Amino acid sequence: MKVLITGGAGYLGSVITYAFSDRGHNVVIIDRADVTDKLDIPGCYFYHGDIADINLLEKVFTEHDDIELVIHCAELASVLHSVYRPYEYYSTNVVLTMELFKNLCDLGLRKIIFASSAAVYDNVPGYMVTEQSPIKPRSPFGRSKYITEMILRDFCDAYDMKCIALRYFNPIGADPQGRSGKSHSQTNIISSLVNVMTGKESSFTIWGDDWGTRDGTCVRDYIHIWDVAMANVLAAENFDSSFKHAGEEFSDYLSLNIGSGIDVTVKEFISAFENVTGEKIPIKIGARRKGDISGSYANIQRAKRSIGWEPGFVVENAIIDYLNWLDNNQI
């Protein structure tokens, strides 16, 4: 199989690319980052440019007319940043993405795997969400993902397209083989904790300890990035049959939760980090941030049933793989 991955040079896209390569598939990448010299991946072809550039897409499909589907990962992906930069998030995550889908349709590619997000969900009692849970995104990032899902639904109805929207929860970690990982300059909970452990920051800030959860801190579902990558591989390999296995109501559009299925509070994650590293992390309590919700974690039964996927790692694995990635790359 040959697949097109947009944003394939980024954190998520690069790990997905390695996962496909490991399974013997070929990958074509379109990315604005000019990192051709760093992408030495078997069966991988790199194109530097914009995802909505029709001339570039025509060149790609002329040279690779055997591409079977696209995995759309190119995005801006910070809840916090989106609150202060909504124009950039809507223009990139919605407008350019819509142009990409229309151009793909015109070029004859009608199978899409879309990197969506759990940020589309509302708070629910008990915090576990299914794909039928209420939708109420609280940030421009979350709204950009849900708007794009609605666009894709309409495109599937109108243009004979098919889409699997993978709603990622909180990807963390690095490729277990150490080939790709998140830049330390891109902040997430592990990189913030590493900053404290290494003395770059004096303490770790918990954004609110009055959320009504079991310890007052937000509930999250932290999913190893390799598990996310394998969800994409299995969604691609089982693309056509996934709609049938998901249920009779699905024919051209399917949303799947991609999480660990385990609820972890921020304080519990800090404890896991301390257990792995043997370091005590000083914490302070800050005010709640705009765009945050009290928490959610994934019911993943539909993903198990439809594409045969389930996670294989826990948060400690992700912490270890991320720390190894930092050590080996001197980031």
Could you please describe the fold and organization of this structure?
This protein has 331 residues and is α/β, with parallel strands linked by helices. The chain has a domain at 2-174 and 222-261 and 298-313: NAD(P)-binding Rossmann-like Domain (Rossmann fold), CATH 3.40.50. 40% of the residues lie in helices and 19% in strands. The protein has helices spanning 11-22, 54-63, 79-84, 86-106, 140-159, 189-197, 225-237, 239-246, 266-277, 301-307, 315-329, and strands at residues 2-6, 26-31, 44-48, 67-72, 111-117, 128-129, 162-168, 170-172, 204-207, 219-220, 222-224, 253-258, 264-265, 283-286, 297-298. It has a seven-stranded parallel sheet, sandwiched between helices. Helix 1 links the parallel strand 1 and strand 2. Helix 4 (86-106) packs parallel to helix 5 and helix 9 crosses helix 11. It is globular and about 55 Å long. The model has no long low-confidence stretch (mean pLDDT 93).
| Helix-strand makeup class | alpha/beta
Shape: globular
- What integer is the average pLDDT? 93
CATH superfamily of the domain at 2-174 and 222-261 and 298-313: NAD(P)-binding Rossmann-like Domain
Helix content: 40-55%
Strand residues, percent = 15-25%
Named at the architecture level, the CATH assignment of the domain at 2-174 and 222-261 and 298-313 is: 3-Layer(aba) Sandwich
Biggest pleated-sheet summary: 7 strands, parallel
